[in-house]
Amino acid sequence: MRAQTITGRVAAFFVGGAAMGCMLHNAVAQDVMVLEEISVEAESDDTLVQDGYVAKQDRLGTKVDTPIAQIPQAISVVTQDQIEDQKPRTLNEALNYTASANPNGFGFDSRYDAFYLRGFPAYYNGMFRDGLRQYNGPSAWFKPEPYGIEGVTILKGPASSLYGISGPGGIVNLVTKRPKEEQFREVEVLVGNHDRYQAAFDLSGPANEAGTVLYRMTGLGRLANTELPGYPDDKLYLAPAITLKPDEDTKLTILGEYSHSVTGGTASFYTSSYGVASDIYEGDPAYNDFTNNQGRIGYEFEHRFNDTVTVRQNLRYNVVDADLEYSYHYPVGNDLQRGYGHYIEDMANFVVDNMAQFNFATGPLEHEAVVGIDYAWTDYSADSATFYPTVDDARAGNPPFAGSQTANQVGIYLHDQIDINNLTLFASGRYDWVGTESVDASFAETEQTDEAFSYRLGASYRTEWGLIPYANYSTSFSPNIGLVYDDLSIPDPVGRIARPTIARQMEAGVKYEIPDTNVILSAAVFDIDQEDGVVFDTSTGVNRQRQLDMNSRGFELEANASFDNGFSLIASYTHLRVKIEKGAMIDLGEGPESTEGKELSATPNNILSLWGHYVFQDGPLVGLGLGAGVRYVGESYGDDLNTFKNDDRAFVDAAISYDFGARNPDLKGLSMQVNAKNLFDTRKQTCSAGYCYRDEGVSVFGSLRYRF
User: Which CATH number applies to 2-707?
Assistant: First the structure.
């Protein structure tokens, strides 16, 4: 029965696409003159320059506008065209086709964007927005809306030498949609399974005749359910932006956002036995809302004094208020009883980055140097109640104070990029001071001070054939918040203040810009040593942090291409092994056992992805677009003692679109698109640290877009 259902869905998708193609063929059978297409792009190409699926230039790797192929570190970019073709619903989905990124460790859970880079968790200290750190609290995470971004840049490996506090796997930088110099207007409606209804708009252009004031207003409204009962996916999103350009040397861009979302509070299934997720959904539709209100306001200021000196100041303040209702089952004899919990958390961040760029020469050496100082403040407070016997008790309850923390960080940094003919040398250094004040549930106060120096040394060489070999050595530094427990075999272990996480990476690779084509190929090998990395462990039934020393070693291959014939391609393969060099003691009932020498759970050794998209450029099917992709996730261990394994799995995605204006000038700007994710309805469990999750089933949705 299940096979018939899957076959029916697949057949319906492709038969529907074929039927649409036949109707389009009949509709355009007459001899109609094909007009030259004028493409209206959504991206601004301000800080991130892109062409189709290929990114050309970005400030992320060096804080100056450097060609990505020239930066001696692995960098992947999810471009605007990729976002539009694949239509990701979350940041996790946007990273599905990125080398060394693993967003598959927690099954279906749209509450959070929890992903790994090169085997290390990056969702707390690896999140950046427009080049500025964006801290997440334990539950108050700043959830990005993919419709509001024009690209995602992933810098692999330690990046503290320029960006301060960050993890060993790398950072993910979201590029906000910015005002465009030319007029751009877009409206879109979307309908999908599970009662998904969405409407969006994106308006930009000059606000005055002189073009010195530019604006952009992006918005989205959504009412949606999911495959889980009582688990919504509703959102209201508004993002205004304005750019002031009084002259060619001065620019101020103000970026804002307000978002209100309601998702389900419980995404898990009851764990019937260790390492087995049952079919019993933990959530109760009567009490299952996770309400998230978030906002941000900030600006980017730039002034060029002359050809030598340019100064910039980037600033942002953002807040997240999270209200989480959740439920769970627990055994009482041979029966299961429900318990309810309520968690409230408020998170606020302020960050400002001041820098000066100097372009000069010393003999044959051309320098692009950056010196800067930044400051970041973050504060969160939480109230939590973990058990109520009924929904009424949970609604009437008043969760007690669960803890708060405030952190202040100051960093100074220096970067010099030196060009000698085709050789480019990179040297970056930074010193950070961090002070943290914590208050636990008993109102006991703790103060902690951390400081560290981090650096990066790298070199790349551009050959006449387009090959660019490179190598780098880089380090990272990240203070940790909260208590950790070294021996989880003790029923009630005593926690200690977490030590900072530090890491060192050696990386070598090659990038290849194929001459006279819009194609870039890259390959990299890496070896990362991490000390005192923080992971969560649920193997004893209690969610506690512990610190591990780990090593990640592997290689990655990636290709991005957009050809003139309408074909675009993304391909990536990652092979890695994350080994626990020093771990905690865990007791699963047969005596304490060390995780030392084991592999980190939910970390596949092999991840492969391939996506292709083709748009017919002429003939009877001109304007028709077809896309398909496969994502393979290899086997991994389900716990850090490596007592059982997660199965490998493959997910298939597909897309079909049609540009009505390709044939009919009166319909210019009108297009439709249908996307299917996990087309073959692959559903398996994934366990991380002994706790198990389930994959989301097939999702299909269609959209109608008009650009004018």
Answer: 2.40.170.20
